[in-house]
Each structure stands twice: as C-alpha cells, then as structure tokens.
C-alpha cells in the first residue's frame, strides 16, 4: 500500500527517496555477501598441520628431508662419533648442534678440517646451559621435519629412514622410539613411568601417552609453538633441567586433541653413555630424575588446568624388515 | 547523469521504473548471496569418510560396534564353530550370514533352538552361489564398520578388539590381517603375490598394496560403493568366482588416493579348513587360483585405466600385548 502512496509524491522527491532506499538495500546486501565470502573455507596455515593431508608443494627438499637437532653437554667425544654416523642418514638436510658447553670452543675447526661432509653442520653456541636450548626456533631450520636426538643415543639408519616415512604420514605427531606413560591415581595425583607401571586399565596390554623427543621426529612448527607457551612452563624446565620432552608432549596433545606420539619400535637403538671418556653419566642417572618427571606432569596439569595427554597402544614396525617374513603367521 | 533525467519523468512512471530496477538489483544480489551460501563448507556425507576425523555423533552402538558378515558355502560345520566364537566378540552388533548353499535350508532353526545368543544372527539366503554375494549393501547393516571373515578363518577376540580400535583410527582404510601385493614388471604386466615375490624396490624390507577382506574391517559405505562399480568389475568376479577382495582394494585405493589397507599383525589367526567334514577344500586350493588373481589385477587396471594401488610398509601391533614388554629394546 505504501508503494502506491509513494507513487503519488512529486517525481523528483520520490525518486530521491527510492534512490536512498535502494542504496541502503543494496549496501546491506553487499555487506551480507561480503560476510558470506569471509565464511568461505580459507587455505589453512601449513605451519602446524592438523590432519593427515599431503604437505603442500614447496621446495622438494623442505618436505622430503629433515633437520637433525642434537644438543650436547660434556660429551664431545660421543657427539663426534654420532655426527659421523648421522651425517650420512638418508633424507638428512642439515645438522644443528646445540652447544651447551658454555665458554668452551666448538669442534668446528676440527670438523671443517675433516671435510668435506655430506651435509652442513651448524654449531649454535649457547650462553647459558639450559635443557630447553634445543627447543629454540632456529632460523637455520629449513625443513618441516625435525629429528631430535640425545647426544648419547645411536639409532640405525634403517630405523631412522623408516620412522621418517612414518612421520610423513603422521606429521602432527611426535614419531619416535621411546614411549612413556602417565598414570592417574585415586588421589588425583599423576605418576610418570614406563611399562613397569600398571596399565591404565584400557583392556589388554599396555598403553603409552608420551613419546620422548630425545629420539623422535616432529614438525618444526612445534618449536615456535613451544616458545609461545606460558612462562611457567619454561620456568619449570629451567628449575628441573628436565621435562622439556614432557612439556612438548603436553603441547602436541593440546594442539591435536589426540595422543601426542606414535611409537615406532626400533630395531637397533643404542645408548653410548658408557662409552664416553668424559665421565659424565647423563641426567637420567640422577636419583631424583623420575620423581622430577612425575612432579613435572602434575605441575603441567596445574599450569594448563587439565590433563591433555591421551593413551595409545599402536606400535608400528616395518613390514618385512629386518626379517623378510616378519609378518608371517602360522595360519 | 541518467538518474537526473529519470527524476524529470512523471512521478508514478519513474517510481515504477525505479521499482523495477531496484527489484532486479535486489534479486541479483540475493542470487549472489545464495550462491555464496552454497559455497560455504557443507557437512560432509558421513557415508564414506575421507579423513582421519572423529566420527559424527550418532547412535552410540552404530559407531562403537561392528557387523560381522560371513559368507558360507559347503562348510556349515565350520560356520557353526565360528559362530560360537564370533558371537561373543566385544563390540559385535550383529552377524549377517550370507548363505551360498543354494536350495539348502539354513541352520536357523537349530540356531534358535540353542538360544539365547549374545547378538542377533541373520541368515541371508542367496539365489545364486556368487562370490560377490557378501558385498551387497545389506539393509540389516546398522553399523558404520563391517568385519568380514571367511568361513574357515578363526581370529582371536584380542586381535579383533585391537584391530577394531585401529579401524576406528583409520576408518577409510581396510584394516586387516592378511597383506598381499602386486608387482610391476618391465613388460608392464602386473603380477599378484605375497612376500615370496620380490620387493617392489622401495628400499629396505617388503611392501604390501592390498589387505584381503576375508579377515578385515572396513567402512560399510564401501559396500554401496562396490555396487556402483562398472558392470565389467562384477562380471570379472562372477567369471573367476574370485578377486572380489582385489576389486575392493582397487575401489578403496581409488577413493582415498592412499594405500588401501592397514595391516595389523595378528597374534592368533587360524585356518580351520582341514577341520571340516564337508571335504570341501576352499577356493584358494584350485590350481589356477593365484594365476587368476594376477589376471584380475591386470583386468582391473584395464577397466579403471590405471593402477590405483599404493604400497605401504606399516605393520601395526598392539603395544604391550601379549608380551607386556614387547616394545622393550636393549638400549
């Protein structure tokens, strides 16, 4: 009815009013269209993958290779042994040695004099001897994948090549060789341990809820993520000089909402501790080491106001290796 | 400028023209908005999952349980033995027995007389003895997961419970206990086999490109998918009375673009063939059985104009079962 009345108005006036009305309507519709466009799916940030997608096409080596990060303290003889081994691992892009021997010269000169080497090795001199130094977001990192190794751990090339291929299928997880778990107790206090602790009660067999980063592959984006964590987390790691790996598992579990790790059963993994001339026995020999780790689990639950770790019982091995018929059954 | 001229027209005429114009503009904008709305991410069809998402919330049992489909021919004694075993598997929702004994009465009466039973068992009487009868999209199916078993295969409850939990993490794959592979040859002709065939050349160890459906979990949506396949595929299976499992692996590989299967190493899997009184030895004893399967691989590549199967070397076992420390290493 109103339109009819509008028509009776003088032409110019009605024209201008209609013009305004239509302009308003058009603007509103354009805003709606704009809002809908904003809701269209956006290209997800590749930095922290959250599904089992194929990685985006970037420089071939950035996706198909990994960076070894090895922190070292007071075991330079082991370091050099291990460097000779790891420098030749397939798909290795670069080695970053985190040099925690404060004030001491790196073996860079010696390293260069014994060149050429298959891959570049970068010595990152630290100013303070901190456990979490290895979790910096190093600018030298060019690959999506990081292989983190303790400076006393030797894993065979076969195991590493296989585990890397597994990581490529589970890029959002920590894919490694050392599983651990936490246990809930009726008091609500958590405890940390391995298979000697009772099964958390999920049926047959055992479960793990963490994969330690001292022998594991994970996405380099998690280093940046770690730097963003609450100060209390960094303080905890500094206070204990321990637990950086537990913190990383909390971080990954929170990010994915799934079990943080995927356990790959190693065929050949060795601890070279006893082979060192330095006499330095390694942190895990300290009497309080395991108690500290239980302490860390509870502190982190406090900091994050919840327990994000999830259990898994998936154990991955390589089909037909080393035993060509290792999948055979007596059927 | 045009607007100015429009203003000079008699009020009513200009009003109506502007009205028409604005109506057209508004309609166009609404159409654009509608198109944008249509581009918004839609809730994906749950029927054929294509990522490692958590399943949608539906009836609890539909997601947390599976349906056993067991086709049987001339081995009713084994069938009944197996039914007593499988009827008590955790998370089993229902059993569908595909009765290929044409013209013969099912053991339903006897079955009912020996009730009650833990789960319903449905006997689907067939009119023609076809290998692919078991791949019908049975209306009795209420679960997302199917467990398909040959009528001479006994898999332990532990293995099945674990493999089901693995399937829930890989719902788009065939998760099962029997891996096989295809090999390319320089002539371009494919061959079918197991570990006795040479590794396809991917480095260490062996690879598999199929998981047989005679002892495997897969998504029930693939049954509908199978019915949609080209007539030539159905004809091939009917011609050979074989290869339905190879066809399913082709189907799944084409659907996912990934290796079709995930191999779970069984702890206790047994073939009960020799225990049958029927004297019926099973199809795979026929002299031409393996040659037929190589034939099928090449035929399917022809039909689909390409080889969709992909290799995997992932072997999954249960952490800490049956040996509580089966993940231990000598580190």
From TrEMBL, chains A, B:
GO biological process, one term: N-acetylglucosamine metabolic process
Entry-linked InterPro entries: Glycosyltrans_GT2/GT47 (IPR052427), GT64_dom (IPR015338), Nucleotide-diphossugar_trans (IPR029044)
Top-rank taxon: Eukaryota
Protein source organism: Junco hyemalis
Transmembrane segments: 21-43
Cofactor requirement: Mn(2+)
Root EC class: transferase
Topology in membrane: Single-pass type II membrane protein
Keyword Transferase: yes
Annotated protein name in UniProt: Exostosin-like 2
SUPFAM superfamilies xref list: Nucleotide-diphospho-sugar transferases
Domain Glycosyl transferase: 66-321
Function: Glycosyltransferase required for the biosynthesis of heparan-sulfate and responsible for the alternating addition of beta-1-4-linked glucuronic acid (GlcA) and alpha-1-4-linked N-acetylglucosamine (GlcNAc) units to nascent heparan sulfate chains.
Keyword Zinc: no
EC number: 2.4.1.223
Molecular functions per Gene Ontology: alpha-1,4-N-acetylgalactosaminyltransferase activity; glucuronyl-galactosyl-proteoglycan 4-alpha-N-acetylglucosaminyltransferase activity; metal ion binding
Keyword annotations of the record: Disulfide bond, Glycoprotein, Glycosyltransferase, Manganese, Membrane, Metal-binding, Signal-anchor, Transferase, Transmembrane, Transmembrane helix
Catalytic activities: 3-O-(beta-D-GlcA-(1->3)-beta-D-Gal-(1->3)-beta-D-Gal-(1->4)-beta-D-Xyl)-L-seryl-[protein] + UDP-N-acetyl-alpha-D-glucosamine = 3-O-(alpha-D-GlcNAc-(1->4)-beta-D-GlcA-(1->3)-beta-D-Gal-(1->3)-beta-D-Gal-(1->4)-beta-D-Xyl)-L-seryl-[protein] + UDP + H(+)
Cellular component, GO, one term: endoplasmic reticulum membrane
Family that this chain belongs to: Belongs to the glycosyltransferase 47 family.
Localization per Swiss-Prot or TrEMBL: Endoplasmic reticulum membrane
């Amino acid at each position: 009815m109103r339109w009819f009345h509008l028509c009776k108005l003088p032409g110019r006036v009605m024209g201008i009013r209609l013009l305004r009305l239509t302009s308003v309507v058009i603007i509103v519709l354009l805003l709606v269209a704009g809002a809908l466009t904003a809701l269209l799916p956006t290209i997800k940030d590749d930095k922290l993958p959250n599904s089992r997608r194929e990685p985006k096409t970037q420089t071939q080596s950035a996706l198909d290779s990994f960076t070894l990060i090895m922190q070292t303290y007071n075991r330079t003889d082991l370091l050099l042994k291990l460097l000779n081994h790891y420098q030749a691992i397939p798909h290795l892009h670069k080695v970053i040695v985190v040099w925690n021997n404060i004030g001491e010269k790196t073996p860079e000169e010696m390293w260069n004099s014994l060149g050429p080497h298959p891959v570049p090795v970068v010595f990152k001199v630290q100013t303070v001897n901190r456990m979490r130094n290895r979790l910096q977001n190093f600018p030298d990192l060019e690959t999506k994948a990081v292989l983190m190794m303790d400076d006393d751990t030797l894993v065979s090339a076969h195991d590493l090549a296989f585990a890397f291929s597994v990581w490529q299928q589970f890029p959002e997880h920590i894919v490694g060789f050392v599983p651990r778990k936490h246990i809930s107790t009726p008091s609500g206090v958590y405890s940390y341990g391995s298979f000697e602790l009772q099964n958390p009660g999920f049926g047959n067999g055992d479960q793990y809820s963490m994969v330690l980063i001292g022998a594991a592959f994970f996405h380099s984006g998690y280093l940046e993520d770690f730097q963003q964590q609450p100060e209390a987390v960094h303080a905890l790691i500094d206070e204990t000089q321990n637990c950086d790996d537990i913190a990383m598992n909390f971080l990954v579990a929170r990010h994915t909402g799934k079990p943080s790790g995927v356990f790959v059963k190693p065929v050949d993994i060795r601890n070279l501790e006893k082979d060192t001339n330095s006499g330095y026995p390694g942190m895990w020999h300290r009497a309080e080491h395991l108690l500290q780790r239980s302490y860390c689990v509870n502190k982190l639950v406090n900091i994050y106001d919840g327990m994000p770790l999830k259990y898994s019982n998936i154990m991955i091995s390589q089909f037909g290796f080393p035993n060509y018929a290792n999948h055979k059954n007596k059927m």
